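Pipeline run #58 for the internal structure catalog. This entry was flagged by the ingest filter as a single-chain record with no existing model, so it goes straight to prediction. Upstream metadata was stripped on purpose; only the residue string is passed forward. Reviewer on rotation: M.T. Logging verbosity set to normal.
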Amino acid sequence: MNSIILQKAVNILSEQYNVTGMSCAACSARVERVVKKLPGVTSCSVSLLTNSMSVDGTASPEIIIAAVEKAGYGASLKIPEPSHQVSHSQEEDALADHETPILKRRLISSLFFLAVLMYLSMGHMAGLPLPPFLDGNNIAQGIAQLLLSAVIMVINQKFFVSGFTSLLHLAPNMDTLVAMGSFASFSWSVYVLFMMTAGGNFTVHNFYFESAAMILTLITVGKMLEAKSKGRTTDALKSLMKLAPKTATILHGGREYTVPIEQVAKGMVFIVKPGENIPVDGVVIEGSSAVNESALTGESIPVDKAPGDLVSAATVNQSGFIKCEATRVGNDTTLSQIIKMVSDAASTKAPVAKIADKVCGVFVPSVIAIAILVVTGWLIAGKSFGDALSYGIAVLVISCPCALGLATPVAVMVGNGVGAKNGILFKTAASLEECGKIKIAALDKTGTITSGEPKVTDTYPVGDYLEEDLVSLAYSLESKSEHPLAKAVASYAQDKGITPHDVQNFKALPGNGLTATLHDGSTLTGGSVKFIGEKYSVSERFVKEAQKFADDGKTPLLFVKNDELVGIIAVADVIKPDSKQAVSELQSMGIKVVMLTGDNERTAKAIGHEAGVDDVIAGVLPDGKESVIRDLQKSGKTAMVGDGINDAPALTRADIGIAIGAGTDIAIDAADVVLMKNSLRDAAASVRLSRATLRNIHQNLFWAFIYNVIGIPLAAGLWGLKLDPMFGAAAMSLSSFCVVTNALRLNLFDVHGGK
């Protein structure tokens, strides 16, 4: 079985492509449909927002590129950069706003000639004088308007090239609608002009030259606004890329050298001075400092670093001088992995997008058919050809497939960006959508609800002994042990500034006990209630006191000097400061919270009660958590929140796997969502952000659908109104802009506030 899985993993590849020539959702739907039909392609996702395509399967890049080109578009394989490079040049180039400058030049040129055209065609209606050679000369006015509109059509020739090329490939797109509307207006006007030269009963009021030009100009306005807004949806990703340091100061042979970041290799020693960015991931080998990691985790409070601690690329050294050894460089750094994860998520599609994709696939042909029916219907109703054509043109130019196609990807991109800024990484668009739909959250205890490190919670000195005496004696004994409980006692004593006594003859005894000899010859013993109770006489009162600690989920440690009980120290894996609030936030969103743990039921219930969870399932081994998740799924969509180490089977089985406290190790295959910070509140924040993004998508889809549902009948004149094609073009130009602008509102969303 394993060999079969391995063979599949080897054969099935996932490739990323750049796609050019797409102008609307109909284009991306066409490319996706063509590639999916190729033999060997198992899945294909095309993003209009980033002009990219992700293809899984065994089909060769040459076959895929050829199919895309045959469909009338361009494609090129994204060549992965070597792992030692961090330029992200391909991603930055793909996300760069190349459209807006081109559209701006087109718009300025178009507006100049359009102003002259509008003056000639409509200025006289406002009482403005016409040049003497045009005044009263209808044919001369027609020729002047023809020339001016032709210039504007040449300036905006991309609409015609793209639109009619797509039509020839039997895959009409938005440009086809614009091109047909503008060309029909122009052609009819040329026909009228020729009829006027032959003495036909036409006037300048029968010309639609200004409509042909105005349609193109207004659509260009809309496309420029859309391009600028689309550029802002990728701001978070572009900001991450800009964080990548360009140089590093390495230490070699006792001398400092500043080198390009591409030349830093694993194992090299680099130094970081106060105020400088850390160039690559590494481990501190000398010095100490406070490092601002907000760029990666969203945590504004600097983190203290000392020898042995890990540091990440693009974080800022705020205070001391540190010397580090490079452990991960280039595309292996945490920053690069985050960029890749956010970028990959943007290239996938959320399940809700399937509705829009199906509509976009048939939208443009349907609009063309409706426009033909509208023209035919009005001709039958007795309208002149010019009036009937005006209705048909209005239908063409008011219809907008772009708004439908952008509704989902722009919201997904912005939502992912907001998540990345807050240390919440969604691996796919599907995980971003599905996370908000969970009904049950299963939380691992150790490291998720609790800190994962035992701490002293209570001290209970006996008789004449003071707390300082108890802790000092306990520290003297436990400082010789490597047990986690011993470390908790030692840490507590150090925090209190208590020093240990010198001890000799230290021994770890079978049955959870320790013993040693003090400098004065006294014997010091420590251990569990059972161990001490078997060796020494402990009164019922102290046994009950120890039992109270145990009932609260704490581990009581008893300490004896010679034959006299010194006191009890209670140690427990305490819950994180924000775990109770996180559980409450999940519950306020209608989510049932269940705690899974391998601890005994008494300890588990004590922790569960303190955290406020709805249910506790204790005594579950790591390999048994997967079956528990399977049972929970029978009651609703379930998320598993764990540390990503022992919880991999459960994370995989759950509808949504959330890895918490991943820190620098973000490449956790089993998880769908990766939380950089070790805070359970981020699990609630991920659900909240998912729901906000899904709400935004639904709003976008509603406005996109309702716009076309109302606009097309209005343009067709079904409600007794006649919509000028120019107003239709203006409405079309604003529809996509409104959808993208609505998506940008997500940037204002507070992931830790509201429901």
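catalog note: The radius of gyration is 35 Å.
catalog note: The first strand starts at residue 13 and ends at 20.
status: ready for reviewer M.T.
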